[in-house]
Backbone:
């Protein structure tokens, strides 16, 4: 077994493609941090513009309603228009207060956050009444509720305010990294590394010498599986070390800062732990699927095409079907771990991830034993 580990390690180190993948991943992480740092600096100006636009739009709506009401007689319709006018008046005033706070860089105090909570409540009310909130159409009801919940938690517990969602402290970077498609982009390089571990021998038929050696085929496959497990640990450690180093510049974050996944609130340390647990399951199950395809087909090209197709299916599934409650039961969706946490699917994803990994490895071993391999 020791010799097999040495073989895998040498093959991994001396494979130039692996070095390129690792360097590309580090470059991606560096660009990811730089992008969020830039967005963090631009956030006050962006929010000032957005709130100003919302205030101008609200004032315009008030004028339109006032014009319409001039030609109305008293009745249900006019009373409805009065309620709408009151809504737009309040939204305009609140938006002006917030835009002033962002302009003066005075947006990291509890009074500002309380005003922001009131603004989100107004927007939520407008969403429920189907008002045309054109300048702030990006805010879904779920997003609004999450923001209200998080801001209220900050105020109630007097937690230091991190107003910008792009803050580059280490804990928030973990949050941003494992959200939506970014999780897929960080999982894909690892799959390329796994691909070379289990399929590279098929490119030049060197697998025949390996699988006809003194080691049993099951021992060879188990050694590769253990090596992949160690690689997962190294990969997570690499990502963590990059964020740890960035923490000396941007800060490490507050472990009790709220991570809102409606309708729950998690402390940051707990959310990061859940994210890492699900992400490890994603890497394990996807690695097992790669091993299964490689040893079933003995074709590196078929394996790569199949894995890429699976990735495309995940993206299409997430966009079209959008059944987030199913994500804990589909390992290919594990990179979308924010949704899994929302539906309390962490335990399910761990159990299913481990079960699928075991099943695919077991099938791969049985398939490998039946293969007719001659030098």
Residues:
């Amino acid at each position: 077994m020791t010799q097999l580990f040495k073989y895998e390690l040498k093959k991994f180190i001396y494979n130039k493609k692996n070095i390129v993948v690792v360097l590309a991943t580090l470059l991606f992480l560096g660009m990811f941090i730089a992008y969020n740092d830039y967005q963090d600096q631009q956030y006050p100006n962006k929010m000032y513009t957005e709130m100003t636009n919302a205030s101008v739009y609200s004032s315009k709506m008030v004028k339109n309603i006032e014009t319409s009401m001039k030609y109305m007689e008293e009745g249900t319709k006019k009373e409805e228009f009065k309620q709408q006018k009151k809504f737009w008046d309040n939204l305009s005033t609140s938006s002006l207060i917030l835009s002033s706070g962002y302009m003066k860089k005075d947006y990291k105090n509890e009074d500002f956050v309380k005003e922001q909570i009131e603004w989100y409540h107004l927007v939520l009310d407008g969403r429920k009444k189907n008002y045309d909130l054109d300048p702030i159409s990006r805010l879904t009801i779920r997003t609004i509720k999450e923001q209200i919940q998080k801001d209220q938690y900050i105020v109630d517990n007097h937690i230091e305010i991190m107003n910008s969602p792009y803050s580059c402290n280490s804990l928030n970077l973990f949050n941003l990294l494992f959200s939506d498609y970014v999780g897929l982009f960080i999982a894909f390089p690892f799959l390329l590394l796994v691909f070379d571990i289990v399929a590279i021998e098929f490119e030049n038929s060197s697998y025949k010498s390996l699988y006809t050696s003194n080691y049993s085929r099951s021992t060879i496959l188990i050694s590769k599986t253990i090596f992949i497990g160690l690689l997962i640990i190294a990969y997570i450690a690499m990502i963590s070390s990059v964020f740890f180093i960035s923490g000396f510049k941007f800060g490490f974050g507050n472990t009790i800062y709220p991570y809102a996944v409606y309708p729950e609130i998690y402390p940051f340390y707990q959310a990061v732990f859940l994210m890492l647990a699900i992400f490890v399951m994603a890497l394990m199950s996807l690695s097992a699927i790669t091993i299964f395809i490689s040893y079933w087909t003995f074709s590196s090209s078929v394996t790569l095409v199949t894995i890429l197709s699976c990735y495309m299916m995940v993206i299409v599934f997430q966009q079209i079907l959008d059944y987030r409650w199913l994500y804990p039961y589909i390992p290919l969706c594990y990179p979308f771990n924010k949704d899994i946490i929302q539906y309390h699917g962490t335990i399910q994803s761990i159990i299913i991830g481990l079960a699928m990994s075991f099943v695919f490895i077991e099938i791969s071993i049985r398939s490998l034993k039946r293969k007719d391999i001659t030098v």
